[in-house]
Amino acid sequence: MQWRWSWLLGAWLSIVQIPVFALGTIEVQALMNDAALLSIGDKQRMLRNGQRSPEGVLLVNATTQRAIIEVEGKRSELKLSQRISGSFSAADTNEVRVDRNANAQYLTTASINGRLITVLVDTGANTVAMSGRHAAALGIAYHRGTPTQVATASGVANAYSVQLDSVDVGGIAVPFVPAVVVEGDFPHLILLGMTFLQRVGMREENGALYLKQKF
Known about the structure:
- The protein has two domains: 21-89, SH3 type barrels (Roll), CATH 2.30.30; 94-213, Acid Proteases (Cathepsin D, subunit A, domain 1, Beta Barrel), CATH 2.40.70.10.
- It is built from two helices and 18 strands.
- Strand 14 and strand 15 form a beta hairpin.
- 5% of the residues lie in helices and 57% in strands.
- The strands form four sheets. Strands 10, 11, 12, 13, 14, 15 and 16 form a seven-stranded mixed β-sheet that branches. The chain has a four-stranded antiparallel β-sheet with strand order 1-9-18-17, with no helix packed on it.
- The chain is mainly beta.
């Protein structure tokens, strides 16, 4: 398996949002440590801590006793079967735009397992790939993953296959994303590859990459 590493300078991300709102009910249907099953309008969403649903509902923290959610900047604490009603943004009006930098590369910020970090959007990488240094910064116990090896420019390196709880770029969120962690300091930036990108809408236009939530 071959991975290609990239070295970058800056780029920027902007979120294009048309303000459409819908009245809906949010109900807690199941509670676990670090996760909750929510009913949001007519949708069921399993969220991990720090993950935002396509409708814009953020699960701040969950235990077996209660869930703390955030909607439109307002937080609420709900117990099992409790519900609230309110307005929330319709997700299908959201797009994330990542502009190409001077090196013709797409660099942006992602939330991985609820922690923000810089990533390179790389359609040539067939998985999300990161270094052991990145994994440590994100709190990922990657040595519990499946051992493997990858070929790099410096030769064969030891690596581990893992599953990320969530990857979120500007509110475009995907749960349970396969990834590879390579021992050492390479790649220099996290590669946001196809295990994430194939699960979102994606198009390139006029020097920008647009990502959109799939339903």
